[in-house]
Design a protein that fits this description.
The structure holds 3 protein chains of 3 kinds. Chain A is α/β, with parallel strands linked by helices. Chain A has 9 helices and 10 strands. In chain A, the strands form 2 sheets. Chain A has a 6-stranded mixed sheet with strand order 6-7-8-3-9-10, sandwiched between helices. Chain A has a 4-stranded antiparallel sheet with strand order 2-1-4-5, with helices on one face. In chain A, helix 3 packs across helix 4, helix 3 packs parallel to helix 5 and helix 4 crosses helix 5. The mean pLDDT of chain A is 88. Chain B has one domain. Chain B has 19 helices and 4 strands. In chain B, the strands form 2 sheets. In chain B, strands 1-4 form a two-stranded antiparallel ribbon. In chain B, strand 2 and strand 3 form a beta hairpin. In chain B, helix 6 packs antiparallel against helix 12 and helix 18 runs antiparallel to helix 19. Chain B is globular and about 65 Å long. Chain B starts with a helix and ends with a helix. The structure holds adenosine-5'-diphosphate (ADP) and magnesium ion. The site of magnesium ion has 3 residues of chain A, from helix 1. Chain A: One of its GO terms (biological process) is L-isoleucine import across plasma membrane. Chain A: This is ABC transporter ATP-binding protein.
Chain lengths: 254, 379, 343
């Protein structure tokens, strides 16, 4: 494997919560433009791994490198500014704001950086960002809901909106924590289509997913996590055939 | 740019607000509140509340220490009157600058924490300021007596241009004494200006960032924003508003006392904001007006007036009602305020503006066109 | 020099004890109900005024005018007859003399009722509301309580005499084998300290050794799990609120001889107690107690003239300064758990 196009490298990461070894000796390499799925039973440490990547949690040891820059020790907003966006397992949105504003806010971060004192300009004059947000909402099929308050959206719509909030930043690396959980079959399919569409734009993605249908239709690579360890790693076909995986995961819970 | 400078609704709101404020001496006269002294306080506390709302209403950070900035503004203004000139403008400028610096330092420290810890930190700083103003800082604050203007203040700028005063020194604007209605219009100008800026801030991208900090600070950080400078800017801006209000109070009544910095004074501005409607533009101003109005009216009521009011009842009943109601007026008006406050927080957390909205919605549903036009401008 | 330091230490104890008692209740309420109670100081104040009321009743008198005799200034002589003594004889006199400790017996049920009524009537509706709103509603309640007291008892402090037998000072120095009369300490303050130690120990024992206490402690650690076990935690939390009110009330009663109560006593102590809770660590009972005493003693040292000579005004701000430093350096407080209320 050509090491040169590895864009994300999680190197020897350990994370302990008191006595719990939530991540043990994780070594993960994600290549540019690929979709890398992480699967594993509940409590395996998948979300924790994403938390370590985006700087929400500091690893007990080891480090995360993104495109030559060491992420460990940086603030979450700095990590985002390097081009990493994340959809959370439970939607993290601005519940009291409108859908449109929810999607506009990340665009401001992308355009204006971590802090700008733009308080005398009117929001109405930001037509560029508004249009961009409307396009984004159209892409995820939510334009007709743009004036709704985000809190009143259905669970599935909240996730889709959160996806739009990430996509509008055109991140180089998109982290998705169970993006289809809680969605109807129909919504799941729309989301998969959407994710395939972005795939063709060459965005690198790490996706955590329980739905094998989603995983095998999207992933270029799969890592299997169980009890904080990566127990298997490879292409979908390799992983599918791996007996260890079948025992720990596929056989166990499905 | 001109088309997007301000939306039509914003412009209407601003113009409406300006007219309501400037016409206050007229429309408040029937309510017994059309005199300058009270009107000035309406303006001053309106500014204080509008500014407080920029912090609490937009970012959700509940400060219990804003009276400290108000007090700093007052002291600075009085010192400017004493040392430099009786003209109000330099006093205002200095007051805003000094309170901004003060807010910058305190805000920088307090904003390292959020939630209840932030509230306690602001409270701690305000109480420190208050206690110091009463004790070791007496050379600056004149302790319990309060800082006053005297005949033999140096006033170097006034002296330099050979201006002298006869009698008790009074703050001026370009030589014109700022008492009575002149004082009111001076304060009203600042309230309108303060409102305008608050409106701009609320409607700007910056304002939206503040609201999203209130909504979900974690998301803000994972979205690439450094939230602390945003919150700090809001803190400093609201501190400047408080300083401005404090300075205006010193202009209309050039005596600054430490009690202006006490935490109960901070509590009062919280009350005004809540009562009117947190996060709304007009709400805090209305809250400030109502509290100052009732403070004025209720605290002036006494048993004689009450007896006259209840005189239509049979004697025993009247006496009883006088005894009961007297507990809620005069010195007891704080009791009324406390009860009102509890009731608002329990039943109408959105304050008066929320009430107005609900009524408006109910009216709209029943579809009476006449009532519709009446309630809409309030939004 | 040692004597001086020891004396300051003792001087800090009674104030520290009051802080500790109030902070204990605050923490109990915060830890169990998750409510930030700005009305807790008002409960302390209400307790103090229970003592005032009890004494008022105990010292009620009948006044009869004896027209046959004249007072020294020429008016008809008023004969005052204390009612309680008239009814109960010597025991009545003892009761009047010991009115403050006696008030405790009456304060306990009253404060329990006040606490339960408050929790059932208002506080319980705020469990799920934001902390800011909890602060606001309890702040409003505190204003109401203090204004009601003001309108009944007036704005001035009402001194409460301590029992005559307990007025002297204890010679602690002699007790510890030092010279006599070097370290003396007012007896009532000593009593206050012992009293608070007993109450604190009682609360801890209650939490430690009863099933009720166990459930409450488990609830403090992890409310959801305990709720899931099907234990009716709400009922217990109501009682906890009542208990916190009782502790605050008793602390207020016993404090009256040291500081004549007035209507803003509660607010004065509230701000400091909150600071104490934060310094101790939100939600930590031992933290609250330790911080209460620590800050009381620190305050006592800061008001020494030698210290004030070096840092003027330090006595005015020491508590707040400590709080600020603690909050900035160690946000969870001295003994607090990580992440409590930090969202
Ligand atoms: N902040 C935390 N503190 C303590 N334990 C945690 C924390 N976050 C996750 N855990 C624990 O780490 C383990 C892995 O959790 P998680 O990463 O959420 O699993 P999943 O693979 O289902 O996403 C779980 O046992 C969880 O309880
Ligand atoms: Mg997970």
């Amino acid at each position: 494997m050509a090491n040169s196009n590895v864009v994300l490298h999680v190197a020897d990461v350990h994370k302990r919560f008191g006595g719990l070894h939530a991540l043990a000796d994780i070594d993960l390499q994600v290549e540019e433009g690929q979709t890398h799925a992480i699967i594993g039973p509940n409590g395996a440490g998948k979300s924790t791994l994403l938390n370590v990547i985006i700087g929400k949690l500091a690893p007990t040891s080891g480090q995360v490198v993104f495109d030559g820059a060491i992420l460990t020790g940086r603030k979450p907003y700095q990590i985002n500014q390097l081009g990493i966006a994340r959809v959370f397992q439970t939607p993290e949105i601005f519940a009291d704001l409108s859908v449109l504003h929810n999607v506009m806010i990340p665009a401001f971060a992308k355009r204006d950086g971590t802090f700008t004192l733009n308080m005398l300009r009117s929001l109405d004059s930001e037509t560029g960002i508004r249009q961009e947000a409307e396009h984004m909402l159209e892409d995820v099929g939510m334009l007709n809901r743009k004036d709704m308050q985000a809190a009143s959206l259905s669970r599935g719509d909240k996730r889709r909106m959160e996806l739009a909030m990430c996509l509008i930043q055109h991140p180089r690396l998109l982290l998705l924590d169970e993006p289809t959980a809680g969605m109807s079959r129909h919504d799941t399919n729309t989301t998969i289509e959407l994710l395939k569409k972005i795939k063709s734009r060459g965005m690198t993605k790490v996706i955590i997913e329980h739905d094998m249908h989603v995983v095998f239709s999207l992933a270029d690579k799969i890592s299997v996590l169980a009890q904080g360890r990566i127990i298997a790693d490879g292409t979908p076909d390799e992983v599918r055939g791996n007996p260890k995986v079948q025992e720990a995961y596929l056989g166990g819970t499905h | 740019m001109p088309t997007t400078f301000m939306s039509r609704n914003d412009l209407l709101l601003f113009l409406g607000f300006t007219i309501v404020v400037l016409a206050m001496p007229i429309w408040l006269a029937p309510f017994g509140a059309g005199y300058p002294d009270l009107l000035q306080r309406f303006m001053i506390y309106g500014i204080f509340a509008v500014g407080f709302n920029i912090l609490f209403g937009l970012t959700g950070y509940l400060s219990f220490g804003h009276a400290a900035f108000f007090g700093v503004g007052s002291y600075t203004a009085v010192w400017s009157f004493k040392l430099l000139t009786l003209d109000a403008i330099p006093a205002m400028v200095f007051a805003v600058i000094v309170s901004a610096l003060f807010a910058l330092v305190i805000g920088f420290l307090c904003l390292r924490r959020s939630g209840i810890y932030f509230s306690i930190l602001t409270l701690a700083f305000a109480q420190m300021s208050y206690n110091l103003a009463y004790s070791v800082l007496t050379p600056i604050t004149n302790g319990e007596t309060g800082l006053q203007l005297t005949l033999n203040d140096p006033r170097v700028l006034d002296a330099a241009i050979g201006q002298t005063f006869v009698g008790q020194p009074v703050p001026t604007l370009f030589g014109q004494q700022l008492s009575g209605y002149a004082g009111f219009y001076f304060c009203a100008g600042f309230l309108i200006l303060a409102f305008f800026f608050a409106q701009r801030i609320t409607g700007s991208p910056f304002g939206m960032m503040l609201k999203s900090i209130k909504s979900n600070q974690t998301r803000m950080q994972f979205t690439g924003f450094n939230t602390r400078p945003y919150a700090l800017s809001a803190f400093v801006i609201s501190g400047m508003y408080a300083g401005l209000a404090g300075a205006l109070l010193a202009v209309t009544d050039p005596l600054a006392g430490a009690e202006r910095m006490q935490w109960t004074a901070s509590g009062e501005v919280v009350l005004m904001t809540i009562l009117g409607g947190v996060g709304t533009l007009v709400g805090p101003v209305i809250g400030a007006w109502i509290i100052k109005y009732f403070e004025n009216i209720l605290s002036a009521l006494n048993d004689n007036i009450l007896a006259r009011f209840w005189s239509f009842l049979p004697d025993g009943m009247a006496d009883f009602m006088v005894t009961v109601t007297s507990k809620f007026v005069g010195d007891g008006w704080h009791l009324t305020l406390g009860l009102l406050f509890v009731i608002i927080v329990i039943f109408l957390p959105g304050g008066i503006m929320e009430g107005v909205r609900r009524i408006a919605a109910a009216v709209r549903r029943s579809g009476t066109p006449a009532a519709k036009t009446q309630t809409q401008p309030a939004e | 020099m040692f004597e001086v330091i020891f004396l300051q230490f003792l001087n800090g104890l009674d104030k520290g004890a009051a802080y500790a008692l109030i902070a204990l209740g605050l923490t109990l309420v915060f830890g169990t109900l998750g409510v930030v109670n700005f009305a807790h100081g008002a409960l302390f104040m209400l307790g103090a005024f229970c003592a005032v009321t009890v004494r008022m009743f105990l010292t009620m008198e009948t006044v009869t005018i004896d027209p046959t005799k004249l007072s020294p200034w020429g008016s008809p002589l008023e004969v005052r007859e204390p009612l309680v003594q008239a009814w109960l004889g010597d025991f009545g006199a003892v009761l009047v003399n010991y009115s403050v400790p006696f008030s405790i017996l009456i304060t306990i049920p009253i404060m329990l009722l006040v606490g339960i009524a408050l929790e059932r009537g208002i506080i319980k509706h705020f469990y799920k509301r934001p902390h800011a709103e909890q602060i606001l509603v309890t702040f409003g309640l505190a204003i109401v309580a203090q204004e009601v007291i003001k309108s009944i008892f007036g704005p001035n402090p009402i001194p409460q005499p301590m029992p005559t037998d307990l007025r002297g000072a204890a010679d602690i120095g002699a007790f510890l084998g030092m010279q006599a009369n070097v370290i003396t300490y007012p007896l009532w303050r000593l009593i206050y300290f012992v009293f608070s130690a007993v109450v604190i120990a009682g609360v801890f024992a209650f939490l430690q050794f009863t099933t009720f206490g166990m459930v409450v402690r488990a609830g403090m650690a992890d409310r959801e799990t305990v709720g899931l076990l099907g234990i009716n935690i709400d009922r217990r939390f109501t009682v906890m609120f009542g208990l916190a009110a009782v502790v605050a009330g008793m602390a207020g009663v016993m404090y009256t001889p040291l500081l004549p109560p007035n209507y803003h006593l509660g607010m004065d102590f509230l701000v400091l107690s909150f600071v104490v809770v934060v310094v101790g660590g939100m939600g930590s009972l031992p933290g609250a107690v330790a911080a209460g005493f620590l800050l009381g003693i620190l305050q006592s040292f800061a008001s020494m003239t030698q210290v004030k000579a070096i840092v003027p005004g330090i006595d005015q701000i020491i508590i707040y300064l400590v709080a600020v430093v603690i909050l900035l350096v160690r946000p969870r407080g001295l003994l607090g758990r990580r992440g409590v209320m930090e969202s």
